[in-house]
Design a protein that fits this description.
Blueprint lengths: L12 H32 L2 H17 L1 H10 L2 H24 L6 H28 L5 H27 L3 H19 L16 H4 L1 H7 L2 H17 L5 H8 L4 H24 L6 H21 L3 H28 L3 H33 L1 H22 L1 H4 L14
Length: 412
């Protein structure tokens, strides 16, 4: 079975609106990340303080994981996204006001990071569970690739735009973030909520933990999301970009935006390739190869002493990560029935958050102990070790041929 390629998923109007909202909200999140990271480091000059940003963003997704997944399976998923994006917009507006007043305090920044983390803890499972309802099953792989393209496009433009606008003041960045999230809310309100394909589960302990049990019973899904967790947890070098910009390369905030854009540029190019030439065979092996390349690129970036040497390594890092994202997300969504998608997506979001936000905390802590460059190199070596171990521990994932096996139709 050949997967649809190109822009096929855009034939569904609801997906087109969802994609546009994902693009705008992604732009806003990337701009806010650059602004908050630069503010924190300019106030503290402490890599551990940058690590705390990741910790504050991650903790809500863990503490609320059982609740957020259940909400995504019982509530209107579009309205959940509307509420989350509206909350983030209000928080960004408060930071714009504080920046206008030139209030140089850390706690409002950490508070907003926590607000964003809480909102995303509810938004991510809802968005992941909603996506398969917006397109026919045959277009899901194409929709996942296009959705990843939106995110990566925002990750290219967002950091660069955030760094550029920061030259006019933090209030300009946070004000723009507010407007973009408000526009995302308007787009989501135009999506007609899909009809439920199954009766929502009752609020019981068994229902709350059903996503965990479902993943544990399926080695392919467990292996895919845990591989991403530990590989990116150890290889999360991007959290240290402000340190490299300020202390290693000795350039300004414009370079931070450029460096943050390069992984997304690589991912966008790879997303275009995957969209037009879908992954069809030996996907398990390709997943492990992509994560190994991610680890090698992390090591290359870690030892770079020049901005221009670092850029191609970050480009390759992003391209390899995109392959992992498309394979993992498609596996999770096609192998999970609709009635379970919210709870499974919540667990998946915790793994993603642990790999990204908790990875930032791990990177900041290790950098404070052994130095920035050794911490990044050790992280890349850790990623390679994870690849070797997971190939041995999860043979079903390693030997998976197609994203959707012919004997297993897409989940309803």
């Amino acid at each position: 079975m050949t997967s649809p390629s190109g822009l096929a998923a855009f034939r569904a109007p609801a997906f087109a609106r969802f994609w546009s909202a994902r693009l705008l909200s992604g732009l806003a999140l990337q701009m806010e990340t650059v602004a908050v990271g630069w503010l924190v480091y300019s106030l503290t000059h402490d890599p551990f303080a940058l690590g705390l940003v990741g910790l504050f963003a991650f903790v809500p997704s863990v503490g609320l994981a059982l609740v957020t997944g259940h909400v995504a399976d019982v509530a209107d998923r579009c309205l959940v996204l509307v509420a989350c994006y509206g909350t983030i917009a209000l928080g960004a507006l408060s930071l714009a006001v504080l920046s206008w007043w030139n209030v140089q305090l850390l706690w409002p920044l950490y508070l907003q990071v926590g607000v964003v983390g809480t909102a995303r803890a509810f938004a991510n499972p809802a968005a992941q569970a909603l996506l398969p309802n917006l397109v026919p099953p045959a277009l899901l792989g194409n929709a996942v690739a296009l959705s990843s393209t939106a995110w990566q496009l925002s990750a290219i433009v967002g950091p660069a735009l955030g760094g550029f606008l920061y030259a006019f003041g933090g209030s300009v960045v946070f004000g723009t973030v507010t407007i973009l999230f408000a526009a995302s809310v308007v787009l989501l309100l135009q999506i007609e909520s899909p009809a439920r394909q199954a009766k929502p589960p009752d609020v019981t302990w068994a229902a709350l933990v059903a996503g965990i049990h479902y993943i544990r019973a399926r080695p392919v899904i467990l292996g895919a999301i845990s591989l991403d967790l530990f590989a990116v947890l150890f290889g999360g070098a991007t959290a240290m970009l402000p340190v490299y910009v300020h202390d290693v390369y000795r350039v300004g905030p414009w370079a931070l935006g450029l460096l943050r854009s390069m992984p997304a540029a690589g991912a966008l190019l790879m997303a275009a390739a995957v969209t037009h030439r879908p992954l069809s065979r030996r996907t398990g092996r390709r997943l492990f190869q992509a994560v190994a390349v991610f680890g090698l690129a992390t090591i290359g970036f870690g030892v770079s002493t020049s901005l221009w040497v670092a850029l191609p390594f970050l480009f390759v890092l992003g391209a390899s990560d995109l392959v992992s994202v498309v394979i993992r997300q498609t596996l999770v969504q096609t192998d999970t029935p609709d009635a379970m998608r919210g709870r499974v997506a919540a667990v998946n979001s915790v793994f993603i958050g642990a790999s990204n936000e908790l990875g930032e905390f791990e990177s900041g802590t290790l950098a404070a102990l052994v130095g920035v460059v050794p911490s990044v190199v050790l992280g890349g070596l850790g990623t390679l070790a994870v690849v070797l171990l997971w190939r041995r521990w999860f043979p079903a994932l390693r030997d998976r041929d197609r994203l959707v096996e012919p004997s297993r139709p897409p989940a309803p």
